[in-house]
């Protein structure tokens, strides 16, 4: 046994990383920086980028400032605007992968459907959808929480004869011009693409379950001079990034009900609503019936304006059923549509699903988490040796950059390895 352990210490560990999104890239780059090259990334699609590869809907962008929504070890000084759009973010991630030679470590079109810990050999065995078995000493999940679109369970949805798709799987071949479109959901994605498609459609129905608190988006283009300063004086770019971090971090206080900052943010959101929306009925419909901070606070400058177009209607009555060509609500109203867009978010609480992960004593994560997902520092779970998660349970932020959290988790994992 001693000889076997000594041999294992002298051998570089075989590391399997699932997912080539932000988390997987950050993990692999830092492993290389630490002199560890024995890793392989298994990516289910044919490209890198994760959620920034999947979400190509009109207006897709980030609600965290670009200089902060980037790796601290790989600053980008020529961001085009304060809040970057999806194409620029994806381009940045692809550049990072090329610069650090990560692409050669990726197995594309390889979906892991099961991972179980072999207690006898002390290794993880991964099963692909093609039936291949992969052996690894260390398993790291970089799947994230925003990779599986969530679809609503509505009676008759399968009978709809028009076009339907999720915002995270946008159908760019389907022209919305002159169409009668139903958007189900009004979250972070919807408030970005609705202003882009509203005027194209003949009619747009927004089916809203509950209103969201919305604050202005302080977005703007960076000047060439600013980009030059950031490039020529890296210390200024670092200071600016730190300033953005502090600016975002202070907003955490806004999640404490009744606090001074909580009240100020609510005042800002309320002022924007009543300033941009003139119709009294629409004001009532769009005013949330819960304290600010209970749900994700959204940022937009043109969402409210787009809802006031003559061809846009906000529907608050719950959907009862879908027929071949219309949506019927519980108030008996029938809304004829030929296109349905689901803006219903992701299966954010079903971590790692549909992949099955089995640790010691045949325990599965699904069983361990039956009362709710939790993990030490959001990274490790007792009973699952040498298994680490990035963007795991309780690590999502509502006020700052998730990349900051990911970098902290990556640093912890590298030290463990």
Automatic annotation (TrEMBL):
- Which GO terms of the molecular function aspect are on file? flavin adenine dinucleotide binding; N,N-dimethylaniline monooxygenase activity; NADP binding
Q: Which Pfam families match?
A: FMO-like
Q: Which domain of life is it from?
A: Bacteria
Keywords in alphabetical order: FAD, Flavoprotein, Oxidoreductase
Tell me the Gene3D superfamilies matching this sequence: FAD/NAD(P)-binding domain (3.50.50.60)
Matches recorded under SUPFAM superfamilies:
FAD/NAD(P)-binding domain
**Which family does the similarity line name?**
Belongs to the FAD-binding monooxygenase family.
* Protein name as it appears in the record: NAD(P)/FAD-dependent oxidoreductase
């Amino acid at each position: 046994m001693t000889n076997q352990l000594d041999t294992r210490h002298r051998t570089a560990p075989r590391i399997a990383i699932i997912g080539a999104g932000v988390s997987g890239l950050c993990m692999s780059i830092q492993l290389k920086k630490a002199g560890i090259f024995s890793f392989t990334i298994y990516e289910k699609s044919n490209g890198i980028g994760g959620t920034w590869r999947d979400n190509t809907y009109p207006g897709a962008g980030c609600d965290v400032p670009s200089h902060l929504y980037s790796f601290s070890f790989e600053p980008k000084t020529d961001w085009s605007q304060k809040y970057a759009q999806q194409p620029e973010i994806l381009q940045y991630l692809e550049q990072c992968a090329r610069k650090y030679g990560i692409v050669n470590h990726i197995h594309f079109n390889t979906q892991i459907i099961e991972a179980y810990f072999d207690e006898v050999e002390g290794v993880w065995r991964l099963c692909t959808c093609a039936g291949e078995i992969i052996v690894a000493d260390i398993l790291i999940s970089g799947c994230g929480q925003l990779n599986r679109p969530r679809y609503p369970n509505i009676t008759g949805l399968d009978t709809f004869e028009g076009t339907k798709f999720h915002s995270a799987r946008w159908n760019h071949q389907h022209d919305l011009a002159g169409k009668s479109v139903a958007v189900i959901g009004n979250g972070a994605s919807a408030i970005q693409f609705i202003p882009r498609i509203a005027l194209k459609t003949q009619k747009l129905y927004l089916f809203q379950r509950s209103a969201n608190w919305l604050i202005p988006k302080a977005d703007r283009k960076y000047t060439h001079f600013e980009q030059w300063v950031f490039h020529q004086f890296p210390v200024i770019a670092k200071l600016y990034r730190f300033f953005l971090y502090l600016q975002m971090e202070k907003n955490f206080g806004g999640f404490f009900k009744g606090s001074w900052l909580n009240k100020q943010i609510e005042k800002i959101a309320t002022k924007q609503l009543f300033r941009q929306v003139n119709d009294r009925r629409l004001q009532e419909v769009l005013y949330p019936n819960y304290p600010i901070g209970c749900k994700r606070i959204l940022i937009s400058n043109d969402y409210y304006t787009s809802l006031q177009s003559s061809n846009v209607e906000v529907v608050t009555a719950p959907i009862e059923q879908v027929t071949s060509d219309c949506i019927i609500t519980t108030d008996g109203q029938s809304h004829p549509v030929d296109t349905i867009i689901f803006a219903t978010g992701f299966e954010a609480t079903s971590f790692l699903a549909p992949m099955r992960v089995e640790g010691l004593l045949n325990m599965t994560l699904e069983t361990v988490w039956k009362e709710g997902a939790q993990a030490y520092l959001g990274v490790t779970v007792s009973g699952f040796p040498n298994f680490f998660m990035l963007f795991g349970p309780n690590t999502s932020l509502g006020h700052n950059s998730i990349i900051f959290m990911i970098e902290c988790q990556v640093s912890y994992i590298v030290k463990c390895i």
